[in-house]
Write a structure and sequence with these properties.
Length: 398
Amino acid sequence: MTWGKVRAWTRKHAAIIDVVVAVAFVGLFFLGYFRGDEKHGPPIERVDFAAAVHVAAAATALASLSLRRYWPERLLILDTIVSVAIMVATGYRHPLLIVTWMIVAYTFARTTGRRRVWLVAGACIAAMFVAAGLFGGSGWISPETFGLAAWSIAFVAIGDATRSRRAYIDEVEERARRAEDTREEEARRRVAEERLRIARELHDVVAHHIAVINVQAGAAAHVLQTRPEAVGPALAHIRRAADTVMQELGSVVGVLRADDGGGLDESTEPTRGLARLAELLDSFAAAGLRVEHRQSGTARDLPAVVDLAAYRIVQESLTNAHKYGTGRARLAITYAPDAVRIEVENPIAKDAEPNGSGYGLVGMRERAAATGGTVTAGAEGDRFAVRAELPATAKETP
């Protein structure tokens, strides 16, 4: 059996061990007490009274040592009362009760708050000191009286120091556990945020081009029998859109497979921004969406997170206009001194049935919130409108 298993067994059966130790301790004490010197014992001529004193001391010691883990304060007071009673009756300090008192006092100090320990133990020590001075026969200033008080105080102080040290160790361990839990929670939070960011990026990358492919494939199927010469341009649009999807997916997957495991960040994220707005509008025009673009204010460089958010909001808004609109949309971008405002409106097709997941609108709101901006989207009569305002000096929020 290993030492760890021995310690676990003793902790589990502490009460049994205390009883065995108490019986062995009291038995060995009296064995040495009476065999070592016949003069030991209280100075009492009546043998039956002397025996009663020893029986009372033995019973008190057995109870105190066996049950000290459960009621140390009560047993300490009991030990004190019995010791004082014997001292008053015989003028004799019973050594078994003295040793037992110190053991119980140590247990009491180790398991109880400092203020209560010193209040109760101090009262017990004072009671025994007074009884020893009045009835002990050696006087107030004898070495025995002062020695008894000094050793009693020492055992209480040792128990209190042990309790303080254990409390300090427990606090350190608890702090370490909380710190570990915090690190794990932070890691889980970062993983969840990164998964959300990746999902949002993949949606923005794929949705627009898949919509283009879908429209062009439908157009090709429509004109295949009547105007076969128009199928080629449609297939060319499909091929270019598919190539673009593959390239952008490759960029995202390349970031995910990076050796540093850092995920998507501004240094490695596929570069997108309002500077490439013309290219985005051309792709929509090729897919059959006529966009009326109007810009107010002087275009200028924006913080990377704002520039990317603005681009993705425009892309998602026009994608929805292409899917659920009549083929026309209006885009207005306003560069204000402290913000950039985006408005996208499109007529809603009468036969349009929303069949998307809704993640696109959620992604727009999340991107705007990440910059400290706002975005609203919803139907306004027979039109659908998206309005976003992003701070031009924003930094990404946590």
